[in-house]
Amino acid sequence: ETGVTQTPRHLVMGMTNKKSLKCEQHLGHNAMYWYKQSAKKPLELMFVYNFKEQTENNSVPSRFSPECPNSSHLFLHLHTLQPEDSALYLCASRASGQGASGYTFGSGTRLTVV
Amino acid sequence: GNSVTQMEGPVTLSEEAFLTINCTYTATGYPSLFWYVQYPGEGLQLLLKATKADDKGSNKGFEATYRKETTSFHLEKGSVQVSDSAVYFCALSDPTGANNLFFGTGTRLTVIP
């Protein structure tokens, strides 16, 4: 375990379902990130939160809705997804004073949209 | 904008072979450069980094040198082991100071005994 825990590890959902991915860290980090990992594509930065405030939305479709209720928890709410949204979704956290070297990644949620 | 281009995999090598994974980048300023490794079923782990031109990052026998003139950060290891089988990602940090990371596509390495 890296200190960043993602649940569930695997998720299969239909295109009309609503589901949520959860990310939790107790490292004392105050920045949290969602990345999408698809085959043969660069890892895509989706959302960034600093001190619970969203500071970046990388043109992500509205069917993905992030939520950060506190600095330890980050959610990604999913609604009416498409098959091309199937991917590994990675959460990461970082302490703001550590610069770009201080990322800790979770093991990811493998999402399959059917 | 900021982007990273990695050589396409997969790469398959015999144990003790020499490894090179090419990485080039585009950035509007002076980024820091990183290599991350992802073992099966795990998240990404920082393997090595370099923060300025001509710096060499090294860890676990892997090395990469920050080459500003060729905008490259190629990963090398002199003698790979089966345990090095993983996906390797090249990345750069946002030079504007936001510390966001931009990654390449990843290169899968399989080392066979």
Identify the notable features of this structure and list them briefly.
heterodimer; A: 114 residues; mainly beta; globular; B: 113 residues; four-stranded antiparallel sheet; 12 strands; 0% helix
What is the secondary structure topology, with strand pairs?
The complex is a heterodimer of chains A (114) and B (113).
Chain A: E1 4-7, E2 10-13, E3 18-25, E4 31-37, E5 44-50, E6 53-57, E7 64-70, E8 73-79, E9 87-94, E10 104-105, E11 109-113
Parallel strand pairs in A: 2-11
Antiparallel strand pairs in A: 1-3, 3-8, 4-5, 4-9, 5-6, 7-8, 9-10, 9-11
Chain B: E1 3-6, E2 11-14, E3 19-21, E4 23-26, E5 33-38, E6 44-50, E7 56-59, E8 62-65, E9 75-77, E10 86-93, E11 101-103, E12 107-112
Parallel strand pairs in B: 2-12
Antiparallel strand pairs in B: 1-4, 3-9, 5-6, 5-10, 7-8, 8-9, 10-11, 10-12
Word description of this protein:
The complex is a heterodimer of chains A (about 110) and B (about 110). With about 110 residues, chain A is mainly beta. Chain A contains no helices and 11 strands. In chain A, strands 2, 4, 5, 6, 9, 10 and 11 form a 7-stranded mixed β-sheet that branches. A 4-stranded antiparallel β-sheet of chain A has the order 1-3-8-7, with no helix packed on it. The mean pLDDT of chain A is about 90. Chain B has about 110 residues and is mostly beta strands. In chain B, strands 2, 5, 6, 10, 11 and 12 form a 6-stranded mixed β-sheet that branches. Chain B has strands at about 5, 10-15, 20, 25, 35-40, 45-50, 55-60, 60-65, 75, 85-95, 100-105, 105-110. Chains A and B meet through strand 4, strand 9 and strand 10 of A and strand 6, strand 10 and strand 11 of B.
Approximate strand percentage of chain B: over 45%
How much beta of chain A, percentage-wise?
over 45%
Question: Overall mean pLDDT score of chain A?
Answer: 92
Radius of gyration of chain B: 13 Å
Helix and strand element order of chain B:
EEEEEEEEEEEE
Mean pLDDT of chain B: 93
Total helical elements of chain B? 0
Secondary-structure content class of chain A: mainly beta
